[in-house]
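WARN retry 2 of 3 for item q-0093 after timeout on previous attempt; input resubmitted unchanged.
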Amino acid sequence: MRVLRDLIGKPVIDSSARNIGDVVDVEIDEESGQVSAILVGHSKRPGVLRRVKWLGGREKLIRIPYSRIIAIEDAVLVEGEWDREKSAEEES
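OK item q-0093 returned
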C-alpha cells in the first residue's frame, strides 16, 4: 500500500515539539484492515532519541495509537508527549 510505504521513515514529533524518532512499522487491525498504531524507533537524525535496549537486547519501540495522530505531512505530529514510559503505560 502506498500510504503505508509513505509512512515508514517519517519523523515523529510530539506535542512538545520533540522529535521522538521515525516510523519504523505500523500495526493493522486484521478485521477492519485499517492502521491501528504506528511504531516509532531509532532515528539517525542528530538530537533524536536513541535506541532503548531492553531484555534480550532488542530495541524497544514506542507504540502510538493511530487515534493520537494529529497530522501527517513531512513529519507525523502526535498528540501528547511520548517517551518509553508513556509507551509502556499505553500498552498496559
